[in-house]
Design brief:
The protein has about 150 residues and is mainly alpha-helical. The protein has five helices and no strands. It has one domain. The radius of gyration is 14 Å and the shape is globular. The chain starts with 6 loop residues before the first helix and ends with a helix.
Length: about 150
């Protein structure tokens, strides 16, 4: 399974992000492209320890069962539920959010496995550094698929 720690996989993600435009439409879901970029940025901030969020109630009970699906080659189902900590409902600036996400993806890899958060994921709980790399790649790929890139 791909990981953001893999240089080639990271470059594929960066190239896909760079294909987005302010007019790119989602194929499912409620977010526009700028909101999706902001959403992905928030999760990257958690991974690189820029932001710490509390565990969700549902995550404490459901997260451990769902976590097993993070680490295989299956994709997330369309319209998968979003953790309330990561919902973006306000308007965002496309250019700002795109630059921010590109920087966060690069920072993720630069920090390396030892530079990631030591806190639990708000929904999935404890993740190893390797699991953060795989989950981050899979999450970004899901949303880039959502927007057709």
């Amino acid at each position: 399974m791909d990981s953001l720690f893999n240089n080639d996989a990271k470059q594929v993600i960066l190239n896909r992000i760079n294909k987005l435009t302010p007019d790119t439409k989602g194929q499912w879901g409620k977010m526009d492209v700028a909101q999706m970029l902001a959403h992905c940025g928030q999760i990257m901030e958690v991974a690189i320890a820029d932001k710490k969020l509390p565990r969700t109630f549902s995550g404490r009970f459901v997260g451990p069962f769902v976590k097993q699906f993070l680490f295989n080659d299956s994709t997330f189902p369309k319209n998968s539920p979003t953790d309330p900590n990561f919902k973006i409902v306000d308007q965002k600036d496309f250019k700002t959010e795109k630059e921010r996400l590109l920087n966060l993806v690069n920072r993720f890899q630069e920090k390396g496995e030892q530079g990631l958060t030591k806190h639990k994921h708000p929904f999935f709980g404890s993740l190893t550094n390797n699991q953060w790399g795989m989950a981050s790649y899979k999450h970004l790929s899901y949303h880039l698929n959502q927007f057709g890139v």
